[in-house]
Write a structure and sequence with these properties.
- The complex is a heterodimer.
- Chain A is 46% helix and 1% strand.
- Chain A has nine helices and one strand.
- Chain A has helices at 2-22, 30-38, 56-67, 73-85, 99-107, 126-129, 149-153, 157-168, 190-201, and one strand at residues 41-42.
- The longest helix of chain A has 21 residues, at 2-22.
- In chain B, the strands form three sheets. A three-stranded mixed sheet of chain B has the order 6-5-8. Chain B has a two-stranded antiparallel ribbon with strand order 1-2.
- Classes of the chains: A mainly alpha, B mainly alpha.
- Strand 1 (41-42) of chain A pairs antiparallel with strand 7 of chain B, so a sheet runs across the interface.
Chain lengths: 209, 271
């Protein structure tokens, strides 16, 4: 009895020993990461915890960035066409607003932060990532330059619609593009997008001088 | 130190020449402040001194100092400890960063209450007296100047913290679809005129990790690494990062491992 017990004990100790030796670090699952993140943030102002629930696109693009592997072409195609299909073009068919207001929107980085006051009007913060009007030297370089955008491309219907869709949801052209979905995510209103469109495409805009 | 301020100063002057008038006036004010700093040295040095006095003072219900705090190198060993954090601590069975451990020691040694310590860890911008937490962190990191970044990665929990931090670094979410990697995984990227370190490159990661905490001239205050993440997550349009949370510790582990071998030079002075 006693010996049997001892043997059983030593066997289980041995197994436990092996288990600790074998068990290396455990790679976290997606669900564990989301849970750990949710436990690490609090809801403040407009920023709720559901911002940590990823869309299919966000998940696919996170993995692509982490592994350095491009999206599977089929997945890319699906994500892009879904994004493009959901673009809402202006109902009145007018695409260009006021470039002066557009410039102010391009300068403003406000909106959707937990620190923003309730009625904050969001900006587009285009200058954070793009050169737009050359007169503004404080611009980032995450996106391509937009200087002379309209002068170089003209304003054919195709260009106008392409630019609208780009601003509405850049993922329609490049699933993992690092540019926010200004229309799709409700960052800018339709009227604000028209103003930013004018900044890029109106021949009178300083961007096209 | 002086040279770094001078470089920042020169950059500002160059920027001022090309800026529109209103921005130029702001820049003028900034230059004035930099002038002041040149004369006085890094204001964080005063905070380090305040932190050191606080560290050695008998405080809290138990009326003891923090001198026996174990920051990972054993009780009472402060110099160099910051460069090896975050790390696994047996007494809590957790991986902790410097700021978590400082709070832990105040609770365990001095009997202070956690809820009081985490209520308002950061001072407000401009003018408000810096918090005790900021002062203690300034002292702890300051005495690690010159130490090589060497986060231990032998304990399973240390490796798991790194792996979680890595996933979190690339985790895109929220209305802007941003991850840390959106702004910090490509060479030579800038937001406006601010250079963004690429944490995939050792030299970039080292420069960023070894210069935090830092005195931010634009805020007139020294900021800690926990604050840095809190503020980057704000720009990321995520909810509000909780002080000392798992995500903050894991991301600091991730960045620290990427910065292994760098030489601590903090508190630094920054824009």
């Amino acid at each position: 009895m006693k010996t049997k017990y001892l043997i059983a004990l030593s066997v289980s100790v041995l197994i436990a020993g092996c288990a600790t030796m074998v068990s290396g670090p455990k790679a976290p699952s997606d669900a564990e990461i989301v849970a750990a993140l949710k436990a690490s943030f609090k809801e403040t102002g407009p920023a709720k915890l559901d911002r940590l629930d990823q869309s299919d696109l966000q998940r696919a693009c996170s993995i692509a960035a982490e592994t350095g592997k491009d999206l599977d072409p089929k997945v890319r195609e699906t994500l892009q066409s879904k994004a493009l299909a959901a673009v809402k073009y202006p109902a009145d068919g007018k695409y260009l607003g006021d470039w002066k207001r557009g410039e102010a929107i391009a300068q403003s980085g406000r909106g959707m932060q937990f620190s923003d006051a309730p009625n904050t009007v969001a900006g587009g913060n285009c200058y954070a990532c793009h050169q737009v009007d050359k007169a503004e030297i404080s611009h980032g370089n995450i996106g391509p330059t937009l200087w002379n955008y309209g002068k170089l491309r003209g304003n054919s219907e195709a260009i106008v619609k392409y630019t609208w869709a780009r601003i509405w949801n850049s993922h329609g052209f490049n699933a993992c593009a690092n540019m926010p979905r200004f229309g799709d995510a409700g960052i800018l209103t339709e009227a604000q997008i028209k103003d930013v469109m004018a900044l890029l495409l109106d021949p009178e805009s300083p961007v096209n001088k | 130190m002086k040279r770094r301020i001078a470089t920042a100063f020169a950059t500002l002057i160059v920027a001022a020449v090309a800026m529109p008038l209103l921005a130029q006036q702001d820049t003028q004010k900034e230059i004035e402040r930099y002038r002041q700093l040149l004369a006085d040295g890094n204001p964080a040095e005063l905070l380090e001194m305040r932190g050191e006095a606080l560290w050695k003072e008998k405080r809290g219900p138990k009326n003891v100092s923090l001198e026996q705090c174990d920051l990972g190198l054993g009780p009472g060993k402060v110099a160099g400890a910051y460069a090896q954090l975050p790390r696994y601590f047996k007494d809590t069975d957790r991986v902790m960063d410097a700021e978590s451990r400082i709070v832990h020691c105040q609770i365990e040694l001095q009997g202070l209450k956690r809820e009081d310590l985490v209520k308002r860890p950061y001072s407000l911008s401009q003018g408000e007296r810096q918090t005790d937490h900021e002062a203690l962190t300034a002292y702890v990191v300051g005495v690690s100047r010159g130490a090589k970044v060497a986060l231990p990665q032998s304990h399973v929990k240390e490796k798991e913290s790194f792996l979680r931090g890595e996933k979190m670094f690339f985790f895109k979410g929220g209305p802007y679809d941003f991850a840390c990697s959106t702004c910090h995984a490509v060479d030579g990227q800038r937001i406006r005129l601010q250079d963004l370190p690429n944490f995939q490159k050792a030299d970039n990661a080292q420069r960023a990790f070894t210069t935090w905490p830092a005195y931010r001239v634009s805020q007139g205050a020294m900021r800690t690494m926990q604050w840095r993440l809190f503020d980057c997550f704000r720009q990321q349009r995520f909810p509000e990062l909780t002080f000392l949370s798992q995500a903050s510790v894991d991301l600091i582990t991730y960045m620290g491992v990427k910065a292994q071998g760098g030489t601590m030079d903090s508190p630094a002075i920054k824009r």
